[in-house]
Amino acid sequence: MKLDSKLDTLNKLQSGRTSRAPVLPELSHVRANGGRLSALAEAISQNPEIEDAYIALLGALRMSPSLVSGNSILVTSTAPGEGKTTIASCLAITSSLAGQAALLVDGDLRRSSLGLAIGITDSVGLTEVLLGETAGADVIHRLRIGQSNSSVVNVMAGGRKSPMILPTMDWAKAKAAFKSVSQDFGIVLVDSPPVLAANDALLLASIVDAILLVVGAGSADLDEVRRAKQQLEQTGTPVIGAVLNRFEPKAHGRSNQPYRSYYRDSKR
Ligand SMILES: Nc1ncnc2c1ncn2[C@@H]1O[C@H](COP(=O)(O)OP(=O)(O)O)[C@@H](O)[C@H]1O
Ligand SMILES: [Mg+2]
Q1: Which of 66, 128, 140, 198 could, after both became Cys, cross-link 210 (CB 3.0–4.6 A)?
Q2: What is the reported pTM?
């Protein structure tokens, strides 16, 4: 990797034509007890900083024309560890807490983690839905979250694994099957593997209405982000935005959301 192509500032992300990317802060100070979804939900409810950041991101996504008629978003990135699973999960949780029904789908089929995150071990999920082997309702788990467990986040695990399933899938049928399962929700977040690791994310792009590209502040390589964005755009599904994750204002430059405190102050 060329040193000067390392994507470590907001300016570079913006000059990389992923312009006006929303920013999600570094949150390692927040205790979220591993990757458990219920713990993430608790962390979001208790931290206005996080909740504000995700409400802003949901709002920005909603403005996209692709999500006026559609509702499903593939959350992807160039490399592992940039925050795809965290962001897909937090978007689903924030939406559910705000009263909009959300479905969180584990599309990282080789390294499924959402089943574990909600404490289930069954291996039926997205794969079986795409193959038409199950009606979606059978594989959607309802996880209660929020104050007095008053909200529900819906979760679909990855399903059985085999390297040959996705490449040999009938994608027209798979898309129709996925649509019929996902149409009942206000928003559908599909977690995915990294774009540059294998073809899986590009294949899954065909079943969703839009793509969100997660960029790890300080870890992503600008050339790789450009390459991944190009590959995703070739699928025909629009990349509706990029989000800079783990942003630390001191290390990476000023945030482009100076107005967030304005909203927070007005809540008081
Ligand atoms: N904004 C953030 N602040 C602090 N830790 C984060 C943030 N986003 C992700 N992480 C942590 O980074 C690790 C990788 O995140 P994950 O969402 O699993 O990435 P990916 O799905 O892209 O591989 C996890 O341990 C997660 O808790
Ligand atoms: Mg992941």
Answers
A1: 66
A2: 0.88
